[in-house]
Amino acid sequence: MRKLFDFHGGVHPPSHKAQSTRTPIAPVPLPSRLVVPLHQHAGETAKPVVKPGEHVLKGQLIGMPDGAVSSAVHAPTSGTIAAIDMQPVAHPSGLPNLCATLIADGSDEWAARKTVDYREHSPSALQHLLRMAGVVGLGGAAFPSDVKLRSGMQRVTTLILNGAECEPYISCDDMLMRERAAEIAHGAEMLRYMLGAEAVLYGVEDNKPEAVAALQLAIRDGGYAHEAVAIPTVYPGGSAKQLIRVLTGLEVPSGKLPTEIGVQCFNVATAYTVHRALARGEPLLSRIVTVTGNVRRAQNFEALIGTPIAELVALAGSLEDTGGYIMGGPMMGFPLPDIRVPLVKATNCVIATSAKLFPPPPPAMPCIRCTRCADACPAELQPQDLFWFAQSREFGRAQAFSLFDCIECGACSYVCPSHIPLVQFYRFAKSEIRAREHDKQLADLARERHEYREYRIEREKREKAEKLAAREQAALADKLAGGRPLTPQQRAEQAELEARRAHIVELAKSEVEHVQE
Length: 517
Ligand code: SF4
Ligand code: SF4
Description:
This protein is of the alpha/beta class. The protein contains 14 helices and 17 strands. The protein has a 6-stranded mixed sheet with strand order 1-14-13-17-15-16, with helices on both faces. A hairpin with a 6-residue loop joins strand 15 and strand 16. Helix 1 packs antiparallel against helix 2, helix 3 packs parallel to helix 5 and helix 4 packs across helix 7. The site of one iron/sulfur cluster has 15 residues, from helix 9 and helix 10.
């Protein structure tokens, strides 16, 4: 039995998971129109490689990764590209983004698929395949998996598969582990190979006993040296730093990444996607999503990326008193501005809300310094102080109090008796600090450009003077070609020329030193 460790704080909100785990994962009828955003991952937007009017096959590349941190995007079914333009997407800002609109032809015809035996390829070749298969973290952040693997190569001894799924209402990972544990374990073994890790641990909260049992069976049947561990159910136990702490006792230092202590975490759904990409040659075209809350049939669906969320909600049957929708969980999710937006790789859950399920919070009251928020904070911060600094715009002090270690889990807001929306203040402070840093970077860049321009003007002046002096010297040499003795005037001209050349050489030297500084 593995020894487990505690982390500081945490809360126990009602789980609300039972209603969406009564029935198996359901397929979704093929939508007639899909909108596929080209920016569904952390990093640079993928570059469109198809044009309106073009016919594409299921799994065909439609967005090429652009830059070191980027990921590919594919056609989720066969059909015709109707447009490449700005469309509303699932984002808290409500701002549109570049999307490919695909009109399905109904045949769902695959492009050629190529499977690989991962043991016959180098880790870096497999990472490239994952980048081109559009594999990103499915736990919510959608960080390109190839980049995470690259940063962890040769540094990671322990690979952790995150199946904690600690946030209320969300049950997509639970159902995936119950139904497709063998594929998850196979994908985890591929990740282990790519990282060169020795140990593989799965962390699953103990409110998912079926998932733990399914993983244990898959590990045994696959003959893998992995370990599926049931961990205590406490929010936010599925946050990477907290999960690492619980399973290994190791602390990720402030401002550092888990790889710096030899650990890397991937979501179980990401491992499943890695299996599909390599063993079945299928890029990331679909995901499991929980549709729950104020609906008649809360359920998990396997839906194509680009499916309008409204179609998923219609399948679950939202109730008449539904007042809105949240993407993600109630603690860390955000309200969807419009449910006609498409499902993206990061959409793990859609919750229909009502005044009964999510009563509006009472008005915020002044902070009474009760420190309940500090007791609940898993990052061991002082949320009441951070709140004060954010409110009074003392951003430097907020940073000094480790604002950026805040994982925005909302545990502090959950326990606050004054109903202060603390996380909103932290998000505000972080965005202000980032905006100021961005402005400073722009100002530094402008200063560097100005200095370089000055240097260039000086250099051009010097080069002109050098050319002129060379011409004058050549002319003088011509005059002296006859070997006649120099007149006093010629001697004076030659001396002046040599003095000017010496001055130019000095100037050039001092500029080189200036640039080297
Ligand atoms: S829990 Fe709320 S009232 Fe209590 S110290 Fe924290 S911010 Fe203040
Ligand atoms: S939101 Fe930030 S400050 Fe609040 S409990 Fe979570 S980590 Fe701590």
